[in-house]
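PROTOCOL LOG
Step 1. Enter all chains and additional molecules of the complex.
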Amino acid sequence: MDLSRLSAYAPLKTLPDWLQRKTNNKSKEQKLPENTFYWLAVLVLMAQLPHVLHLPLWISAVGVTIVALWVASYRYPDRPLFRLMRKSHALAIAAFIGVVMVHLHFGYVMGRDPGVALLFMLTACKFAETRHSKDASLLICLCGFLLMTQYFYSQTLLAGLVTLPAVLAMGGALHSLAGSTRDHKPVGSMQVLRNVAVLLLQGLPIAVVLFVLFPRLPGPLWNLPSDASGVTGLSDSMSPGSIASLSQSHEVAFRVEFNDEPPRADQLYWRGPVLSSFNGRGWSVNKTQTIAKFRNEPSAEINIDSDNLFSYTVNLQPTHQHWVFGLEQPVSLPVQTQVVVDTENPGTEKVMAALTTEQQLVTKKPITRMTRYRMQSNGQTSYRPHKNPTTTLTQLPGRNQKTIRFARQERAKSISDAAYANRMLQWFRNEPFHYTLKPGLLGDAPMDEFLFSTRRGFCEHYSSAFTLLMRAAGIPSRVVTGYQGGEMNGDYMIVRQSDAHAWSEVWLDGRWQRFDPTAAVSPERIEHGIASLPDSEPVPLMARNNSGVLKNWQLRWDRINHNWQRMIVDFDNSRQNSLFKRVGLGKPTALQLALIILAVSAVWALILTRKAVSKQRPLDPAEQLWQKTCRQFERMGAAIESTETPGHFSKRLQSMWPAQTQSIQQHFTLMETLRFTALENGEREQLCKQGHLSLAALRKLSHPKNAQPG
Amino acid sequence: METIATNSRDNTRSRADNGVDNKGRDRIIQRFFRKRAEDTLPLTLTHDRVYILPTRRGWAFLLSLLLMLIASMNYALGLGYALCFLLCGLFSSALLATYRNLAGISLVELTPRSAFVGESVIFELTVHNPGKQDVRMIRIRTQADNETLLVDLPGNSKAEISIRQSAVSRGWHKCGRLTFTSDYPLGLWYSWGYMHVPAEALVYPSPEHNPPALEGRSANTDADNDAAPSAKGDSGGIPDAMREYVAGDSPSLINWKASARGNGLYTREFADNATTDTAALDWADTAALEDNEQRVSRLCAWIVECADKGVDWTLQMPDGFYTQASAASTNIHTLTQNAQHAIDMSLPDSLHARCADNRHLLNCLQALALTALPSTTVDKV
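Step 2. Run joint prediction.
Step 3. Record the structure below.
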């Protein structure tokens, strides 16, 4: 009988161990070690940082303050304030205040922007109440999501770079969470950083493969709520001062690549919203304008001057508005396109906008993401519409009586509408009008005040006044807003918010004719943009032409950003398809893509683990030399027999190369010494070196023609 | 005894019924769970022994990656994709790192240490990391306790670790399956590997506290018991020990019985001040106690007391085991059975200091530890 059976023993548990572990851990949940806490604090702050730029100041201030306070209370737990803070319901109150603030600011809670703001507050509060490793896990996931939401607002290179340290911090938090227990010496911070950096680098191939191969959707999964976010740009109305304030922004509105030579500065009128409703003070878009037919070919009515036809591609930043911009006058409708144009199969391209009767390019959906389209324009100053203007374009609401009287007098002095318009332009040129970003406030009759007393204004004042003067004389006219100018940077042009402009369009001889009174007042504006304003004006530093080195760097940076935009941010469905076609994949199915990804990851895993698995200790130098010797003589036609001792081998070699008897013998003696004699470390290395040298000398032996093995 | 026999017969029958099919499944189960102690030392955690799954934190991380991916898809965030896939890369390389942290570790030695019931059996492990890379935060767990041991192994180093398991009942105490686990470095993956080496330590019954006095239990040396032949030598006493025969020893001092095994001659030795008093300890003497284990503990206590006082004793067990001081070579038969395992049958440390090299004591304790006892009912009948 087997006595060993007697040992009383618990029956084997069939639960897998990782499951057993779960149940065990619950009972002895550990408090977070100090270094983990600090890693988490760094992570949360890094994830919050990019959001501070776009969130309302008070929300970001509260969020960051909560984190800072709790770090301080962790550091100095005995200060009365912190003790009170941790004991009371301070956190719950803070969270409640946060939600209320978000609601107050946005007016609603469900939506992308308030959602991000709530996530921001939630992350801060979660950090403050993190006690155990489970909380920390959740916090890390929240931070990951918070990090991603920053791309709703900015996807510049800088935004990408800012994320990297945050990802490192996230890895650091995970690492220190797993690598430190109470009774165990934690890993040093530098070591943690190094480990995480190595892991990230090792994971990079997988990240690249997934980025390139993961199928991109052609459209969104669900309809996006039209989030009116605080994007700077032109709006559908204009009042005195609105464009002047836009001019202070140096943000990029769009970038343009011209197929041929770029147009002259006086042709660079980027047509945007057309404002034909006037309320006595400001101008707004006529909501009832009808859409002309979709056209994809140059219209027959437009006299195509082939010398003056500009083909170009616009990379429009998201505006969250329903319009796109094009040079005056558009000849074709904008066609959405991708960076790598597939000449053989342009099937994915589609017309993205329609032209209204007011010659405005409108889209069905707001532009919520960076959009690329190509179109053609003829660079002319007038166009012939399909329909004659209605009488509403001569309406004159408001109290600008003096202006109206003046207009009628002047019209009476002119022989024609055209002569009158030019006369008024001349008048602007001659009178002491002042082009300035600081026009001062205007009262109840703003145009009267502007034209006859202050005479200080920005482009919206001039275009507004000019249009009013035309209407007062019974000539249909309206204000056109958009951008004027642009700055070449290498092979593309940057158009910034500071290039925002407004001009007039007047109905003359059956055509809409452009008049730019600002150009009459300040011709430099058209040539040099708002940099032409005197130094006392609050022109953004970068818009100045003479900023020298700084400007130069700024342009370079924009170039990098532009390429970043093209390569990384806009890598979408169509670009992916053209890339697949280029490398000869055709149109791979999801299964094929999955197989490729799997194959690549398998190779990657093999490479990374082989290094670890073949962790053989390096060979002893004597052994190394011996093997090298054997290999060398094998190549030379004298392989060592399996039954041969080194002594015999040496003798045989000596007989094969009688001339080298001595050197062969010396080499073998040296190997023997290296192997069997106790040597000092330095001596050993010296001897090794010698051995390799003497072996190299033996390599020069000629191949024995009459080699007789054995 | 009866029940044990039945059990084993049942086992064999059920195994025979299912035939070959069962064998294959058995092998697969053994391959994945290593439930039987079939591993031999030295044992390395090779890739076929290392398993890996995401931890709960890992699942949560994956879930948030999925959410990020969906958001990126919907809003066509190029950088969202990039961030998501970068973290995917981190997650994947954490998989390999966690695997590498565990793979390659080898168990070089496993030495059991005996104990009394109530004490701790100790298994001394020597773990070796042959790789160049440091290995950190390896947890070693046995099946018996939920206690885990945390080990760091710098590159190319060995570490000695003691696993303590409480000795609950007498008899053989198996080391059981060892589980090596690690979730280092990121805690997103949990890798584990089993090692099941047949190592056993003998657990001796715990000596009873304050047992009844031994007085009046002197041995009936001219007993009618055939199994207890007279041990009286020339000096008429019971020998204290034996030693190898040295030329010149008196033939009457030779222990013929021990020598008859053919391992050379043995000479009986007598201490100068040896008391002639011999305690005859018999299983039947403890009949006052209901519980078999208590009876064993009492016997054990008596034996230890005798050894302490230097009194000779004989031991009679119900399964026929009888020993007296002179029968030093009467060894436990199971020793040969288990010889290929790592086993320990030495005295527990607590006793070792007091009664070193007392072969007789060891024999008796082993008998007490291993004797299969009749069930209480059978005894009464």
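Step 4. Note key features.
Residues 180 and 362 of chain B are 35 Å apart (CA to CA).
Residues 1-17, 219-236, 327-340, 377-381 of chain B have pLDDT under 50 and may be disordered.
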